[in-house]
Design goal:
This protein is mainly alpha-helical and about 240 residues long. It is about 65% helix and about 0% strand. The chain binds zinc ion. Zinc ion binds next to helix 13 and helix 14. The site of zinc ion has 7 residues, from helix 13 and helix 14.
Length: about 240
């Protein structure tokens, strides 16, 4: 028992704040520089940011800057939601208020596909796309293409062609699947039946397994029907109609 107490005392002594030490110059750094450094850490690693933040009081204060929460990566969010749901949700709200594209995307998918707050969901996804999240842009395009509204469908088609042209479809689909793993998918209102878009050259356009690949747009081929078919089927698999 005595030994344990001594060990604990030893640990306590080591946890002295850098700022409290007379030799420390950390708090003499310009705040903007520290914010930039912490923002880069936050964009790279969620856990590294929260460790860095604990280094000293100066870092704790600097880490409250909105710019950091705008850039914070949320790739470990599903785990955090599971273990500390209240804190994780508060963090998502903070990130959304700072324009964090990942948080907007995550919450947008949650509202649209899980809690069925469709307008709020689509607005958040749209906002994430405006903040430069290509995954959000892609799923927005897919949702539009699956709509009955002709104008939305046209707009969705243009979005999807752009994402296909940029070769980003696979990563967008992987990201979507990763995020929705932590959600109940309840939206049964998108499809009334299985999507079907006719293309007389389907065998040619799909010969290299294009369903899985990045590019239904390549070698000058921009086959809208095949793009609509592949991407709407991707969503259909996750959101089949009610029986
Ligand atoms: Zn085709």
């Amino acid at each position: 028992m005595e030994t344990t107490m001594k060990m604990n005392e030893g640990r306590k002594r080591k946890r002295v704040c850098i700022e409290d030490e007379p030799s420390s110059n950390v708090n003499k750094l310009p705040t903007e520089m520290v914010v930039d450094i912490l923002a880069n850490v936050a964009a790279d690693s969620f856990d590294a940011f929260f460790s860095a933040k604990q280094c000293c009081k100066f870092f704790v204060r600097a880490s409250e800057d909105d710019f950091i929460y705008k850039r914070l990566t949320l790739n470990v969010l599903p785990d955090k939601l599971w273990w500390t749901p209240k804190k994780a949700k508060a963090l998502v709200r903070r990130c959304i208020s700072c324009g964090n594209a990942e948080a907007l995307y995550w919450q947008g998918l949650f509202e649209f596909f899980s809690t069925l707050n469709l307008d709020e969901g689509i607005n958040l996804i749209r906002e994430a796309a405006r903040e430069g999240d290509v995954g959000a842009l892609y799923i927005l395009g897919v949702i539009y293409v699956c709509s009955d509204d002709a104008q939305l469908k046209r707009g969705g088609g243009e979005i999807l062609k752009k994402v296909h042209r940029e070769g980003k479809v696979s990563e967008c689909r992987e990201k979507f699947q990763r995020v929705i793993e932590s959600m109940w998918m309840n939206n049964r209102s998108i499809f009334r039946k299985k999507p079907s878009y006719a293309c007389p050259m389907r065998a040619e356009h799909w010969k290299d397994g294009l369903w899985r690949s990045n590019a239904l747009v390549r070698d000058g081929v921009h086959c809208e029907a095949c793009i609509f078919q592949a991407d709407s089927m991707f969503l259909y698999i996750h959101c089949p109609p009610a029986m």
